[in-house]
């Protein structure tokens, strides 16, 4: 199954071809794979994965989301797909579920009977499920596949970096020192694995005062500029903390107005970084 011609990295990677662990499904043609990672849990990876996918889709790209958060999958809910199920093709390939606006999605929660049943699997089984989402899902032709990574720098993150040809990672952080420290670990892990880090999105960066429109920083984490400099990272954008983010769960819900502009800028930077603009 391994084949450089059908690989999103398409011969531009530094991997020794003989030692490349990546298997590609020749029936898929995926141009760019973007991992959304943090290292830390609950900072907004899934939310930002969905927002980036929606923005790319609105620009006319063919987009898919692979929910690699096997034990805590939230993508189907965020896209209003909680009652949908993935099916099998006659060739025994997994067919992703499609949102009304055409984003293809695979998540373990689209394959189990009850979304609130826990997945009590050990690391290697979780990792092999993620690999299968890459090799056994019939994604078809995609311009961008967004991978919502699980929190942490453990087994699954390693599997994604070693077995899926990631074009670049978007790191998500919030302005707290503890979080920056853990995001730094994720950045270092990516660089050790020769995976490009596109840049960082600072989520829940501020709130906007409803009376005077002033931006108020809620957390007093270290200055992001110092962190960016230390880690040699690009800031893709800062997103405010807003209540309407939770509306994403409603089917058809658009990107909240308050973050439209910032999101556009984030996506333009991602496109440029992957040389698509
Ligand atoms: N900018 C924001 N403003 C307000 N709430 C937000 C924002 N971003 C995310 N949230 C909320 O924070 C919670 C965690 O978000 P999300 O599930 O996207 O994080 P995660 O990093 O994917 O979590 P996990 O590590 O569990 O996978 C959710 O309830 C989400 O609605």
From TrEMBL:
Keywords: ATP-binding, Hydrolase, Iron, Iron-sulfur, Metal-binding, Nucleotide-binding. ATP binds at residues 39-46. One of its GO terms (molecular function) is ATP binding. CDD domains: Mrp_NBP35 (cd02037). Pfam families: ParA. The keyword Magnesium does not apply. Binds and transfers iron-sulfur (Fe-S) clusters to target apoproteins. Can hydrolyze ATP. Belongs to the Mrp/NBP35 ATP-binding proteins family. PANTHER family: IRON-SULFUR PROTEIN NUBPL. Homodimer. This is Iron-sulfur cluster carrier protein.
